[in-house]
Amino acid sequence: MTSTATQTPDAPPPYLSVNNIEVIYDHVILVLKGVSLQVPQGKIVALLGANGAGKSTTLKTISTLLRGERGDVTKGEVQFKGERVDQLTPNELVKRGLSQVMEGRHCFGHLTIEENLLTGAYTRSISRGELKDALEKVYHYFPRLKTRRSSQAGYTSGGEQQMCAIGRALMARPSMILLDEPSMGIAPQIVEEIFGIVKDLNHKENVSFLLAEQNTNVALRYADFGYILENGRVVMEGQAQDLASNEDVKEFYLGVSSAGRKSFRDMKFYRRRKRWLA
Ligand SMILES: Nc1ncnc2c1ncn2[C@@H]1O[C@H](COP(=O)(O)OP(=O)(O)O)[C@@H](O)[C@H]1O
Ligand SMILES: [Mg+2]
């Protein structure tokens, strides 16, 4: 098994390990340029970065969903629980405990919330009793879904659909979830509620999370560790609280700094201050 530079000899292998992956779309567009990251078991790791940085591509590479999008992994490897998994199908990965919640809340709009949740158990051959228990567990963590169980998903709020998408992933009893932009288009109060539930699942069910987010502020408050992706490369990584208090991160991703508010779109200033790329 390969080990990474950050690993000490006695440290347990990371639960999920992405090693130097390179991804090309349509045979020509290089979007990931050697991305490496690790998720230890039982942790929440945030993958941060602006729109187009490569967060979704990284998640889809891990869950092997990239093949359906004319994307090719041209370099690197992915290991989950100490084994190489990049040749598996998404279904095989789900059976091994790794599920993805895609960006944009993929629920079936014409099905009820409960029917949506039941579709999440498709990879498992389980008894009716187990199915009922799995549903009750989802409803325990997402009481809003219980209230809305008979509503057609397409008519529920954005927050409820996001909860439904996470609940659906939970039905496969994953030990790790890749969660893509759960805050997107959702009211701040509901975002907090969703992240609170993620933290709860992490603590009580020991589910590990790799969380892609443009919302750096909220992600760093709930994550243990973070990576910042820019233009297909990891440009910074660290403990969540260290990143949250880092001046550059504050300036470019949190929109505040000791010098006042700055936008990272102010490119001239951005280049000058971006010491971590030098
Ligand atoms: N299916 C695709 N075909 C071609 N280019 C793509 C495809 N999906 C994403 N891209 C490009 O890859 C880059 C990274 O996209 P993405 O991984 O979606 O970033 P993020 O999730 O951080 O917003 C962007 O420049 C985007 O336009
Ligand atoms: Mg994305």
From TrEMBL:
Family in the record:
Belongs to the ABC transporter superfamily.
GO terms (molecular function) for this protein are:
ATP binding; ATP hydrolysis activity; branched-chain amino acid transmembrane transporter activity
Show the InterPro entries listed in the entry.
AAA+_ATPase, ABC_transporter-like_ATP-bd, BCAA_Transport_ATP-bd_LivF, P-loop_NTPase
Q: Name one Pfam family in it.
A: ABC_tran
Which residue numbers delimit the ABC transporter domain? 16-256
The organism's lineage is: Bacteria, Pseudomonadati, Pseudomonadota, Betaproteobacteria, Burkholderiales
Keyword Nucleotide-binding part of the UniProt annotation: yes
Swiss-Prot/TrEMBL keywords: Amino-acid transport, ATP-binding, Cell membrane, Membrane, Nucleotide-binding, Transport
Instruction: Output the PROSITE patterns linked to this UniProt entry.
Output: ABC_TRANSPORTER_2
SMART domains linked: AAA
GO BP terms: namely: L-amino acid transport
Q: What is this protein called?
A: Branched-chain amino acid transport system ATP-binding protein
Does this entry carry the keyword ATP-binding?
yes
